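Task: encode each sequence below as structure tokens.

Item 1
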Amino acid sequence: MKCDKPLFKPLPIGGYDFKSIIEKGSYYVDKTLLIKELLDRDGKVTLFTRPRRFGKTMNMYMLKYFFEAAVDRCTGEIVDNSYLFNGLKIMSAGEEYLKHMGKYPVIFISLNTMKQMEFDGAVRMLMDDLAEEYKRHSYILGKIQLNEEELDFYNRMCNKKFGIAECKEAILTLSKMLEAYHGVGPVILIDEYDVPLQWGYEQGTEYYAKVLDLIRGMFEKTFKNNPYMSFGVLTGCLRVSRESIFTGFNNLEIVSILTKSYGEYFGFTSEEVVKMMNDFNVAERVDEARDWYNGYVFGKVNIYNPWSILKYVQDLRDDINSLPSPHWANTSSNSIVKEMISHIDESVQEELELLMNGGTVEKPVHEDITYAELEYDVTRHEEYMDNLYNFMFFTGYFRKVSERMEDESKYITLALPNREVRYIFNRHITNWFNVKMYHWDRSPLLQAVLNHDTEAMSEAISDILYESISFYDYGESFYHGIMLGILQGIKHYVVDSNRESGAGRYDLALRPKSLFKPVYIFELKYIKNVDKLDEMADEAICQIEKNDYARRFRDMGYKKFYYYGIAFCRKDCVVRFKDPMDKE
């Protein structure tokens, strides 16, 4: 049901600063009860792992503005941010939660900028963020007693005259100083904690070892050996505890997409999406939104991709007839899907076909993936692929259908969540197959076509089909695409597709550049019953003749024509040939 007066609020596309979104009056999907659950569970350090673009950074800013006892660095005056939460759900949660509002110093660091080609560049990005955080809290200088060594440390941090050792100590030292000033320990927020680890892994072993040592050392000081903090929150895409990042952390609560708590706070629930689309008067497209962007399961909650929904609703506001687009797919290279497809063997091929056709696969799951486990080794192919499935599951490419335990191991049944993710696989599978086709020797098939050798043609086409990955239930468009790819690039011939001729449209035609050579016209049929392959191949020949598909080429000046009828059933085919000049 449409609302009478659609909202004209801007949508926060690309926005992540909670304060800016609220002050601009942008549309905000209320996630403030995350604060209540954090306080209820009273965890010392909480790590949230969610796929990219699922609202992690916005929630971290929301926590910052709620908890922070903000002080203007220039005037030393208290900054009251409570107005940002007016009308939001947390304000009705009760005094036991509101008493925490504006009561803590906050240290906020994002590691998202540590994506530099050289390790020294990544360190400089971290130094910039640490220096800014020290400057942001410079109101404490002169208000607490610092010895000469501590004051020198503070000044060097502000002026970025420090190194890796100081990076590891920086948050612990600032925590101590803030606790001395405020009388209460800081809330420490670390956003995108695993970005430098993933980036470091991609740059090579030496880079990775250095960044691993840096992050591990900083986290041990910040979270394991920090008596001054009140509590901490981290976000990232993956839990990587086997990297020894969190070795010995007895105070760490890990909240992954499998965890039953906190399910509704990252991404949009079904109810939130329906409300948004009603608010903007585009509710008639809810079913389409569900097909494209829904399907994630976090804990026990069904979740939509928030980035894609915001972009989709924005498109509909501009033009109600806008078609859905793969918005999330376009926010990165999706290199992990390319990685999976590059190591296809028969078992992976079968699994991808199941997934692309709406089926499921079952895989062992472990939440503490290491990037080193994504290093391909042909001797451990099966283990590698299981690790890749895990990585892709936790980063948003699969959804959980069910789970079970066996011999103390957990197994999860996986499916593709929606059409947007299917598009990502479709695109990369198509590219992979096109590359294979480019390098494939077409000469045997061409020779079979020219020699009217239907048995050799059938064998050659089937060989290609068995190396392909079929999806959308082997529809006729699948076979058309396969045959188009097979025939394209044959020297001295042009491939025509779906052109009008005679009383209809032929499927494919192999047209020579010379008018003295024959045109080959192909009609394709798809059936589900393998016993009818011969019958349908004969019917395809009859269709070419009945509809006079050769007319277009006669008009072009060609004199000779040959007909091929090809019937497909899954990955098998039968080929029929006819020379219309044959009077038998």
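Item 2
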Amino acid sequence: MTVELMTQETETPPRRQPTPSASAPSREPSVHEIISAARPVRAPGRSAWLLSGMTAILLWCSFMPLGWGPLGWISLVPLILLIRPQQRCRWMYQAIYAGGLGFSLVALQWMRLGDQTMYPAWIALSVYLALYFPVFVALSRVAVHRIRVPLVVAVPVIWVGLEWFRAYLLTGFSWYYLGHTQYFWTELIQISDIVGAYGVSFVVALIAACLAGLVPRSMFERLKLQVPGADPQADGAQIGGATGTIQIVSCLAVFACVLIYGIVRRNQADFQDGARVALIQGNFPSSTKHDPNEAVTIFRTHEMLTGMAVQHQPDIIIWPETMYRWPLYEVADGVTDEELAKLKPVPEIDSQVWVDAWRESEVPEILADMSQQAGAAMVLGIDALHAGPKNIDHFNSAVFVRPDVGLTDRYDKLHRVIFGEYIPLEKEMPWLRSLTPFGESFGIQKGSHVVAFEYGSWTFAPIICFEDSVPQLVRHVLNSNVDEETGQSTVDFLVNVTNDGWFHESSELDQHLITALFRCVETRTPMVRAVNTGISAVIDGDGVVVDPEVFIDGDAVDAESARTSMADPETGRWHKGLNAALVETIPLDNRTSLYLRGGDWFAGTCGFGVLWITLGSFFPNRRKKAAA
């Protein structure tokens, strides 16, 4: 009994294993762990940088100088792939902005060629345009994942809506629209006479969205665009099943309808012979234009080319922007000689010499003599100076001279280039000039109204430089000259005088011409362009650049080496950087344009959609709310 008790006393009882809840105190999670648990798991950002870079490269290749337009159809596909996953990857928007900035800097690099002072403007514009890329993706993600808009609807609507905003914000920049990559596909771009160039951008973005929607989910795992084990239903943008079939058929139907419309509209054209024009193209970089010693050389060259063109009996001869180097002086009514003398920019100038120069200007007489000798009317780009009681206004102008009555009218440029021709808000905030490299004499004044010139049986409207790239301005010019009975514009053709000598034969010259030709389709109005250094052209109402009847190579050494066409027959590239003259009869267009009447109703609707989706981003996520 004692032994038994002793055994029981000395026997070690078994230990109980502690549990977290019972024997060990619980550990409070750290702040870092709480934040990490709440933070969503994101896929790595390498693919975002890759896809953004691919879109930037494809877009650049689609535009000039390469001009590989077919790549425009797939250029947005990599960017659209970043829209499909519900959960964005790391650094996605930074990568998208970097890609947009890379494209903008390279595409717009021609801006820096004009002058060293244009470097800040080039960089500033690129920084601004790059913002549209992440905004496009962000709004598309809201539309697809929060508002449940189909990808093939969200992408083209938002892209076109942003292009429309870009045409108006900060005075507008209507270059490098997605639809411009398809300028060579003449049937496709005919839809522009209903919805503008924006309609072509819509179709291209629509097809890109359809292609992106067909990419299988397995590709997202390979690209690591979504975290492992992600809910497949989170990708609501994949095109598949019965709904996907409807979307694909709808996209193809839109594409087919646009092509059929283009074919029908082209067959409706009945071009009639209009005025026979001679386009005079000098080849002077802007550095020589501003050299007073070169003024005579510039004049003699244009005079020589005019004499060569006169042999082919043109009705109208056109010189490029500011290529008549002596300014046109104009004194306002009631301004006295004493008031005029006080406007001298340099005190050393003799007052009487200054006043006589304004009162006895010989420029109108010289221009009238030129027109009479040529036996043709003339449109010349010139600087116009208007002296008022207190100041002198400087205008970039086009004057119209007739052989029978001399100088009859003048058009002053309406749409000035920001930081190229004026400083915004300078009057309200004069200190802004101190932030720019420009002097006190920088800038020109804005014209006050639209002008139409008349000669023979033709009415034509002048526009200057980049004005041919602004859709709403060209519409305004044409709609300012309307027949009250028919409601149709009375303008038979547009005359654009341009100086692209700033850009040294870069891709700007090609892209400027491409952008301008969309104005002809939109309004069904032909255009003639006389451009210093090129590319001068006659464009018909279908947006086709017409090879002129006569092409005069002013640089040719002999007849054998002379170029006979505005394009290289081997490469198809337009000639640039040469002295030349083109003579052609303008093909007048018999068709009317809904876009000319209705304007940007389509793009404006897309812009309203952008605003609606932006507001939608402030409302709760419907998918998350349903899941809860």
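Check on item 2: The longest strand covers residues 377-387. Confidence is low (pLDDT under 50) at residues 1-13.
End of task.
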